[in-house]
Structure formats: structure tokens, C-alpha cells
Specification:
heterotrimer; A mainly alpha; B mainly alpha; C alpha/beta; A: mainly alpha; ABC transporter involved in vitamin B12 uptake, BtuC; two-stranded antiparallel ribbon; 11 helices; B: two-stranded antiparallel sheet; about 70% helix; about 0% strand; globular
Chain lengths: ~300, ~325, ~270
């Protein structure tokens, strides 16, 4: 019976929570859009990828844009602000183009539309920035720090920290502010929200923007861990989607718990079972949940009226 | 009784004429490159038709067609390369195995609908691809499977693109016939009822569970056949081709062509196989155009190109039969998941 | 001497609910409901909003599973059976929020109604002639007949969705009739209709009954209910508070209380 390796397992736990936090943030983005408009956004991964590319363009000393090498490096804070502004616009545009024209047509056309946008963005990225992966430096000068016997990546800690702050912020937003309450009302029952004076169209647009910003933060946090490529968002989004279902589709705590759970299980599984099948773990969990309790950990069944 | 000049007879004649023209292509086109492309287009059309039965007719989302495509391809490949089976029975086995896997997959998914089902199929697809990549003893992993033989009848081998074209054509015609018969009879109506309003379908006496299973198994079988055909065409398999993205390609072909029309499935597959080649100079941008095209189609032409053609035909041809050319559910009554 | 069995059979209904229960979370929508619908009747189910009428219909047609009690249809127990089996046994229905197959043509909607009385399956479909073609033709002809019966013969080719609301309701009825039901459940068939349309509906419903189908309908239009019904069951809080011919029910004190002065004496 092998010894319980506290050092290795703690490191794995930190790693797992970090990537799990990313899944949680992206899953939150899904769930908020789903709650507001009843559709799953298959372009959520591009909400992560696109801002990463934009950030890279202004963080790196030299970047290839449309084949030409540019030197548009800006200070870190300026870049973050710029990316946020761009993504607000992105969220609004996305709402207007991919969702709004199809809002009365049921869920399938919108799903297909978001798939179309996803394809478009991924290849637009290749067109603009070429196919070479970009490497964004982390927030920290060193890749790992040594805390006693542990080797931890500060970026992982930053991810966990920022995500916790964001979740706290969101809690305050939804529970204490008017805007948050309007968003929740719209998510629960659009028709009634409209009747009590909520400007639903505006709230939906805001929800898309908020979701885009969640993706942005995820992208900025995770990009230093991997590289920035046109595919970086795709697998993350699929796993985040799986996480939101595991947690209970439509449930915000569910998205968070689901994301963290999948991140941790995946990291441990990849280490102890097989690294080749790491990516499968999230989906095996998903399928198991779908078979046993499709409403997930925190989800509720919705009765249908005749 | 259909009169010789009725719209139905004229439609049948038009189809027959089209089939004849298509059958004569290799007599006039000698470029291997073009013939190969035609074969591939036909193969994709079969897979897309299968998706059309599941998504177009029955309204069940599946993003796992590529997985069945791969299962069919590797089954056929493995039995011919490693066990020396002749090609035709191996193809048959590929279809049967894909159908069985489809059956195994659909059972647990029956309680799911909409997004849940879509995600379960995505999950299955990703897991399948990982298995194809990592089960090296059977599939040879990313190195690929080589040496897959061409089918033969006696000593006549279908080993040129011109000859293989006919293998694909026959398969395509059989699959199209089956799909057409389904669509125009009780089974097809039951499937469409499920798509339009599953609760009402059940209350009307349709065993929705059973029909969803049939649709799913058919989709898997069609994709398996297509995969097998591709294996004996390219004679080489790589697991990279059987990705989620490939399932998305099938979906795009169906949406662009017209999701509940058999002609639409074929049209979408042919168009989106040839278009990239035509747009080759625009290498990267053409896929962008795909994505944009999908969004535009879904917003402005939910019935796809086939739907557009039906509308044009109704406008310009007198007496054209009313098409129930249905598409992606367009109604506000569709319940979200 | 008339055998006790025969007496019992004469008094027992085509549809009998005994102690039917349906709960949603903490709410008991149907609370040990007893109801008897006699063969050949037009039977109305009325009650204030939220009294459990639609839920009862939904449980009968197996949209919901009951939490207790029994539903006997012509002697056979229905609870636990799925919707499509219940349709095959001879119960058809329409819905409060019309559920047509919107993108399909009106004719196809009604043809689908024939599903339980036809047989061609996947294998049979592959055959373009013979029995399959014959059944196709018969299905189409029968559907067209039914459309004429409800007065919509000339819109057979239109899409379900394109029809005005009242016509959609009639298509739903035609679709239900296509399965040759012995019992037809109608959930607020007159909802949204003007007086002229309601009169047409009344005539239609009487003709359906005269052709041998028993009707069980939920309605809020009291004029309609009083004029057309042979028997009425009044629900309140998921239980029946009165059951009998219209005149009797109208005089019932509990019923009047439940409606707090609703006009029951309109007929």
C-alpha cells in the first residue's frame, strides 16, 4: 500500500482547483446565458480565446497581425482595460447578431447559430494572427515557487484567488443590487419580469456582456498556463459545459461546484490513472451523471404544462 | 392514380434524369482529382443523410456522427487488414456494429432531450476519438491504419477513383431510397411529429421512445457505412479525422443544405465538399465563410438551400405539390430543454 | 331476475376514477378524486381555476403519473401505462394550449392521428407498392374525410401553424378523431372562440357524440357547459363536490359556494 504522498497530492489539489476555477468561470458564463435566454452558447469557448488573442497583441513586444509584424506593446493595466472594453463590445455584438434575430425561434436555431459564430471566430483568429501559438507571460516573474516541500505555481494561486473574488462579487451583485435582481428576475421568468417593468432586451444584452467578461477573465488567467491558440477555448468550453450539467444545469452554485469538481478529478485522474485519457475524464463523469441524475447536483426538474 | 403529367410523375422523372446524369459523370470526367472529390462528397452525403433522419426528421440533436463515421471506418479497416476479410462483408459488419453501438448509446440517453442529449453525444464523440487514438493495438493510434484494400467482385477491383465512384453512387442511392421511404410513410410522419411536439405525438399514440431509438440507430448505421466507404477509398485511416469538429461539419452541411430534406442533405454535402476546393486560394478565410454562412442561413433561410429551391419551384412551376419542407424547428412552441 | 353483474355494468362508467391522487411537490392538485363518465355522454368537468381539472386530464392521458388511486377505462386499469398505449386503447385528447405539428400540413397532422390504427413500420415502408401503398392511400383518404367533417376540407395543404386559432383547434379535434377513440378528452375547446365559433363547435361536438364517441370536456364557458352536457362533475381543490345532470349540479349549494356567485343557471 503506497504511502499517501501529501506533497504530491497537495500540489495536484492546487492544480486541480486552478483549472477547475477556469471551468467554473466559463460554466458560469454558460449558465447565466442559459438562464436568461434558454439557450446554450456553443461559442462560449471563443469568449475565452478571443480576448486572449487581443491581450496577447498588446502584451507581447512583437505580434503578427494579418501577416505583418506589429509592436503594439502596452503596459499591463492598459491592456486589461482595453481588452475589457473590446469584450463589452463583443458581447453586445454577439447578442445582436447571433441571438437577437433568432430569439423567438426555439433553442435549436440559436444553438446552430452559436456554432456558426464559433467556427467563424476560430478561423478569423487564424486569419488575423496566423497559426503560431502565442505565449503570454504570467503575472509573476517566476513559474513556480517553493513553499516548504511544495512546488506551487503562483499563477494557479492567482486563478483561485481571482475566481473566489469574482464569485463573491457576483453574489453581491445578484443579491444586493437592483441590476442583479433584474438579471435574476429575467432569468426566472421573462414574461413576468417584463410585466413588472424590467427592460428585458437590455438585461439580456447585459447578460451576454457579463458572460463575455467572465470568459475574458478566464482567458487572461489561463493563457499563461497553456499557449494562445485558436483552439484553446474549445475543449475548455466543452468541459465547462459538462461541469455545468454535473452541477445542475441552470444552477449557479452548481456551475461553480461542478467546475471545481471536474478540474480536481481530472487532475488527479490524469496523474493516477492515465494522462492519455485525461480529457475523457470530464465526459465520463458527465455521462455518469446524465445516466444517474440528469438534473445534476443542484438542479431541479421542471414540470411541463399541457 | 398518378397521371403521367402530374407533379408527382414529373418529380420522379426529374430525379431519374438526375441519377442518369450523375451516373454518366465518370464517362466525361477523367480527372482523378475531381472523381475522388465526387466520391468523397457522396460519402459525406450518406453521413449527412443519417444525421438528417435524426435531427432533420426527428429533431434530436447529435454531435456524434463523426464517432460512428470512425467506428465504421476502423471496423471495416481492421477486419480487412488484420483478419483478411473480403471488403463487402466487412462493410456490412461496419454498418451492423455502428448500429449496435448507436443502440447502446441511445438507451441511456432516452430520458435526455435538447441540450442534455447534445452534450451526451459530444461526450461520446470525444471519448470515441480518444479511444481511437489511444487503443494502439487495434487502431495503430495516430500513426494510422494503412493498407486497407479496395472492394472486389471476382477479379474486378474497384481500385480507381472512377470505379469507386460507382460503389459510392450505389450506396448513396440505396440510402437515399430508404430515407425517402421513411419520410413519405407512417414512420417518417411519426418522427416528424416527435420533432414538432413530442407530447402531442405521444398522446396521439406514437411510441416516441421507440422511434427515437430507430432514428438514432439509423443515423449511426448511415455514418458507419459512410466511414467504411471512406476507408476503402482512401485506404488509410487516421483518428484525427473523427473529431468533434467533423461532427460539426456534418451539422453545417445539413443546415446549409436543408435539414429535413433528403435532397438537402446531399446538396449540403456536395456543396461543402466542393466549395473549399473552389475557394482553395482563400485557404484560411473559407472556413470563416462557413461559420458566417451558417449564421446567415439559420437566420434567413432556416429551410436551407433545399428549402429555397422548393420555394422557387412552387413559384415558377405550376402544380408543384405542397412541400412540407420542414426544417430546424422554427416555432415558438418548441420547448427549451 | 336481472343479474347483479348486469346492473353493475349498466351503472359503471366507460371511465372511472377512484381515489385519484396527484401531487406536485407540496401541492396536492388532485385529492382522492372519484369520477364516473358514462358511455355515450357528453361529460363536462368544471371548477374554479386551480381546482385540478387539467391535471386530471393529464393524469388520465398519462402526461403525468398518478400518485395513487385508480383509473379504469372500460374495465382496464390505465394508471402506469404510457401515453401512447392509452391512445391505442381508445382515448384521444386535445390540449389547452393547442399542440399541433406546426410545420406539417393540416392533412399530415390528421394523418398522424391515424397512427394507432395503422401498421406499416420501418420494414414495410421500404416497399413502395402493395399493402404499404394501400394503407398510405387509406390514411390519406380517411384524414381528408375527417377534415371535411370538421369543416376544414379546403385547407388540407396549409401548414398547421398558418391557420387561425379557432381552425387550429378544429384540426386538433380532427387529429384526435382519426384514432377512432371511444373517449375524447377536450381541454377548454372553446377557449378564445367568439359566439359564432362556439356554436359551430357545439354542433360539432354533438355530432361526434352521436357518432358514438364519449366526450369529457373541461370548459369555463358556462353557457356551453349547461347546454351541451349530459352530466357534469364539479371540482374544487382536487376533489369532486358534485356530479350529476346539469340541473342538479346547478342547484347544489356547495357548487354555488365554490363559484362564489358564478352564473350556473344560464341554461
Amino acid at each position: 500500500m503506497p504511502q499517501f504522498d501529501l506533497v504530491a497530492n497537495t500540489q495536484l489539489l492546487v492544480s486541480g482547483l486552478a483549472i477547475g476555477s477556469i471551468y467554473a468561470l466559463v460554466a458560469l458564463g454558460f449558465v447565466l446565458i442559459y438562464n436568461a435566454v434558454g439557450v446554450v452558447n456553443f461559442a462560449q469557448g471563443e469568449f475565452v480565446m478571443f480576448p486572449s488573442y487581443v491581450a496577447a497583441t498588446f502584451l507581447l513586444p512583437a505580434v503578427t497581425v494579418f501577416g505583418a509584424v506589429v509592436h503594439w506593446q502596452l503596459p499591463l493595466v492598459a491592456v486589461y482595460l482595453l481588452v475589457i472594453v473590446v469584450m463589452v463590445g463583443f458581447g453586445l455584438l454577439f447578442n445582436r447578431i447571433a441571438y437577437y434575430p433568432l430569439r423567438d425561434r426555439g433553442w435549436l436555431p440559436v444553438v446552430i447559430s452559436t456554432i456558426g459564430v464559433s467556427i467563424f471566430l476560430r478561423n478569423a483568429a487564424q486569419l488575423v494572427w496566423g497559426s503560431q501559438p502565442l505565449v503570454i507571460p504570467g503575472l509573476f516573474p517566476v513559474d513556480t515557487v517553493t513553499v516548504g516541500p511544495l512546488h506551487i505555481r503562483p499563477q494557479d494561486l492567482a486563478i483561485i484567488g481571482v475566481t473566489s473574488l469574482l464569485i463573491a462579487f457576483q453574489y453581491v451583485l445578484f443579491e444586493r443590487t437592483t441590476l442583479g435582481k433584474q438579471m435574476r428576475a429575467t432569468a426566472q421568468d421573462r414574461a413576468t419580469a417584463r410585466l413588472i417593468g424590467v427592460r428585458v432586451g437590455r438585461i439580456v444584452a447585459i447578460t451576454f456582456v457579463y458572460s463575455a467578461l467572465l470568459g475574458t477573465i478566464s482567458g487572461l488567467l489561463v493563457a499563461p498556463l497553456f499557449t494562445v491558440t485558436k483552439e484553446m477555448g474549445a475543449l475548455i468550453a466543452l468541459k465547462a459545459f459538462a461541469a455545468s450539467i454535473v452541477g445542475g444545469f441552470g444552477s449557479i452554485p452548481g456551475a461553480i461546484v461542478g467546475g471545481l469538481a471536474i478540474g480536481v478529478v481530472e487532475t488527479f485522474g490524469g496523474f493516477y490513472i492515465s494522462s492519455a485519457y485525461t480529457d475523457a475524464i470530464a465526459f465520463v463523469i458527465l455521462i455518469a451523471v446524465l445516466l444517474v441524475k440528469p438534473s445534476g447536483l443542484f438542479g431541479e426538474r421542471v414540470a411541463e404544462k399541457a | 392514380m398518378t397521371a403521367a403529367n402530374s407533379p408527382r410523375a414529373r418529380g420522379a422523372l426529374a430525379v431519374a434524369l438526375l441519377v442518369v446524369v450523375v451516373a454518366l459523370v465518370p464517362a466525361f470526367v477523367h480527372s482523378d482529382y475531381v472523381l475522388n472529390l465526387c466520391g468523397v462528397a457522396g460519402i459525406y452525403a450518406i453521413a449527412v443523410m443519417g444525421l438528417g433522419i435524426l435531427l432533420g426528421f426527428t429533431g434530436q440533436m447529435s454531435l456524434a456522427q463523426a464517432a460512428f463515421f470512425g467506428i465504421g471506418a476502423y471496423t471495416s479497416g481492421w477486419f480487412t487488414v488484420n483478419l483478411g476479410w473480403p471488403v463487402w462483408p466487412a462493410m456490412g459488419l461496419a454498418v451492423v456494429l455502428s448500429a449496435l453501438v448507436g443502440l447502446a448509446v441511445v438507451y441511456p440517453c432516452l430520458r435526455l432531450s435538447g441540450h442534455y442529449l447534445a452534450l451526451a453525444t459530444i461526450g461520446f464523440g470525444i471519448i470515441t476519438q480518444l479511444v481511437l487514438i489511444n487503443w494502439k493495438s487495434v487502431t495503430n493510434g495516430s500513426d494510422g491504419m494503412t493498407g486497407i484494400p479496395a472492394p472486389q467482385i471476382g477479379s474486378f477491383a474497384f481500385d480507381t477513383y472512377g470505379r469507386y465512384y460507382y460503389v459510392v453512387l450505389v450506396a448513396l442511392l440505396v440510402c437515399a431510397y430508404i430515407a425517402w421511404r421513411i419520410k413519405t410513410t407512417r414512420v417518417g410522419r411519426a418522427l416528424e411529429a416527435i420533432r414538432e411536439n413530442e407530447i402531442a405525438a405521444r398522446a396521439t399514440g406514437i411510441d416516441a421512445t421507440r422511434y427515437k431509438i430507430i432514428a438514432f440507430v439509423l443515423a449511426g448505421a448511415y455514418a458507419g457505412l459512410a466511414g467504411s466507404l471512406l476507408a476503402h477509398d482512401t485506404k488509410f485511416l487516421s483518428p484525427d479525422s473523427y473529431s468533434f469538429d467533423q461532427s460539426v461539419v456534418f451539422l453545417v452541411m445539413l443546415v446549409v443544405g436543408g435539414s429535413s430534406s433528403i435532397g438537402g442533405a446531399i446538396l449540403g454535402a456536395v456543396l461543402l465538399t466542393f466549395l473549399p476546393e473552389v475557394l482553395r486560394p482563400l485557404k484560411t478565410s473559407y472556413i470563416m465563410v462557413y461559420g458566417a454562412a451558417v449564421v446567415v442561413m439559420v437566420i434567413f433561410m432556416p429551410r436551407g438551400l433545399a428549402g429555397l429551391l422548393t420555394v422557387l419551384r412552387a413559384r415558377f412551376v405550376r402544380g408543384a405539390p405542397p412541400g412540407s419542407g420542414v426544417a430546424i424547428p422554427v416555432a415558438p412552441g418548441v420547448e427549451p430543454a | 331476475m336481472i343479474a347483479p353483474d348486469a346492473i353493475a355494468a349498466a351503472e359503471s362508467g366507460l371511465l372511472e376514477l377512484r381515489g385519484l391522487v396527484k401531487r406536485f411537490g407540496g401541492v396536492t392538485a388532485v385529492n382522492a378524486l372519484d369520477m364516473t363518465v358514462r358511455s355515450g355522454d357528453i361529460h363536462a368537468l368544471i371548477g374554479p381555476n386551480g381546482s385540478g381539472k387539467t391535471t386530471t386530464l393529464n393524469v388520465i392521458s398519462a402526461l403525468y403519473r398518478s400518485d395513487g388511486g385508480s383509473i379504469r377505462f372500460d374495465g382496464a386499469e390505465l394508471s402506469g401505462r404510457p401515453s401512447h398505449v392509452i391512445a391505442k386503447l381508445g382515448i384521444a385528447r386535445t390540449f389547452q394550449n393547442i399542440r399541433l405539428f406546426g410545420d406539417l400540413s393540416v392533412l399530415e397532422n390528421v394523418m398522424i392521428g391515424r397512427h394507432v390504427r395503422t401498421r406499416v413500420g420501418f420494414i414495410g415502408a421500404l416497399n413502395p407498392v402493395g399493402a404499404t401503398a394501400r394503407e398510405e392511400r387509406e390514411t390519406r383518404e380517411r384524414a381528408l374525410e375527417l377534415l371535411h367533417f370538421v369543416g376544414l376540407g379546403d385547407v388540407a395543404a396549409a401548414s398547421g401553424r398558418s391557420l387561425p386559432y379557432g381552425d387550429q383547434r378544429r384540426v386538433e379535434i380532427a387529429r384526435a378523431l382519426a384514432s377512432e377513440p371511444r373517449l375524447l378528452l377536450l381541454d377548454e375547446p372553446a377557449a378564445g372562440m367568439n359566439p359564432a365559433e362556439t356554436d359551430t363547435l357545439v354542433t360539432l361536438l354533438r355530432r361526434i357524440r352521436d357518432n358514438g364517441t364519449t366526450l369529457l370536456l373541461i370548459e369555463h364557458d358556462m353557457n356551453l357547459v349547461m347546454s351541451i352536457s349530459d352530466r357534469i362533475t364539479v371540482l374544487n381543490f382536487g376533489q369532486h363536490i358534485a356530479e350529476g345532470p346539469p340541473a342538479e349540479v346547478a342547484r347544489n349549494a356547495d357548487v354555488i359556494t365554490a363559484y362564489l356567485g358564478g352564473t350556473l343557471d344560464a341554461a
